[in-house]
Amino acid sequence: MTKSSKKSSKINKKKRTTKTTSKGSKSKKAVKEENEEQFLDEVLLDIDEDIEHDRELRDADNLQVKYIDDQKIKIKDSDARKVVESVLDVETRTTLFNLRKRKVIDYMTGVISTGKEANVYHAYSPKGDELAVKIYRTSTNIFKGLQIYILGDPRFNRIKRDQRSFVYAWAKKEFKNLSRAMNAKVTVPKPIACLKDVVVMEFIGEKGLPHRIMKEQELIDPEAAYKEVLVNMRKLYTKANLVHADLSEYNIIYTPKVYFIDISQAVLVDHPYAEIFLYRDIKNITRYFYSQGVKVKDPDKLFEKLVGEPPSIQVKTF
Fold it and tell me: What is the pTM of this model?
């Protein structure tokens, strides 16, 4: 072997060794990435392909809420992947991966609803229970207008003022509010887990098909539904020490049993604006059920029955 060929052989051997070492140093990272990719493949099914093969998912998409509230947006099947990607950034994907490692989530099947604040996904637990996975957007500035609901809450006095920290606190607030309401026997989706910007709760529906909000369906017995809403409002205020602060026909699921949802903005009864929010909730409920032909209670008298005194001029005119 010539001197030059020996040198070439040594160089090639060094390259092969370097390549092997490089592979070895990346193996753990590669394994982690493969695990996350595998999870995402299972979690984020390609909706377009999935709909072709799964009639239930197609039906679920057809039943997606058309009008949640002024801040909600519509989605179409062809936009489903785009919707998923808009809320699932790298950190949120890692959070979902960690929830799977903790055996909270097994896999997700598709989008239930979308909004400016959060998307809600249908999922299954390792035991086969149906779940609703609410993922708050960390990239939107919509939360700047929601600070009034959290800055007066002593449970969150020490939160940082950056966007991501606020969103994490908001998700935690919903989980805590759901837990309080559940303990007070208010009919709400059962809270299961909360991690960063993800809240996992009971799915109100069957076989991937969500029950719709009250606004979107005809009430079987409007008077019974009205009474049930009032009972839940009383429990929420007197036992959970909470005011929903955004209660209306858009934030109640009707099965025909009623479930209070979107409870993240709910405030403690000693919040500076609690009575103002309570009176607004009462007015919203009164307006809706009056439109359904129900003989409703006077809002002022209902407020007085809950609080112990009539609403002040400030509360009524805020």
Answer: 0.73
Is there a domain that residue 7 lies in? no
Instruction: Measure Cα distances from 219 to 60, 95, 253, 262 in Å.
Output: 21, 39, 11, 20
Residue 29 confidence (pLDDT) above 70 = no
Looking at per-residue pLDDT, the higher value among 132 and 39 belongs to 132
The answer to whether 247 and 228 are in contact (CB under 8 A) is: no
In a shared domain, residues 52 and 153: yes
Domain assignment present for residue 225? The answer is yes
Q: Is the peptide bond before 310 cis (omega within 30 degrees of 0)?
A: no
Question: In the predicted model, what is the mean pLDDT of residues 210-222?
Answer: 95
- Condensed to tens digits (0 to 9), the pLDDT of residues 221-266 reads 999 999 999 999 999 999 999 999 999 999 999 999 999 999 999 9
Residues forming the active site: 246, 262
Length of the chain equals 318
Count of domains in the chain?
2
- Which tokens belong to 280? 């607004």
Q: Tell me whether residue 235 is in a domain.
A: yes
CATH code for position 46: 3.30.200.20
Report the distance separating Cα 232 and Cα 70, nearest Å: 24
Together in a domain, 306 and 239: yes
Range of the domain at 32: 26-210
| pLDDT tens digits, 299-310 | 999 999 999 999
CATH number of the domain within which 295 lies:
1.10.510.10
* Residue 1 forms part of a structural domain: no
| CA atoms lying within 13 Å on the CB side of residue 266 | 29
295, with CB counted inside 10 A (0-12, 13-18, 19+), is exposed
pLDDT at position 45 over 80: no
Last residue of a domain, one of 210, 231, 259: 210
231 CB-near residues (< 8 Å, 6+ apart)? none
- How far apart are alpha carbons 211 and 81 in whole angstroms? 23
Let me know how many helices (H) and strands (E) the chain has, helices first.
10, 11
Is the pLDDT assigned to residue 176 strictly greater than 60?
yes
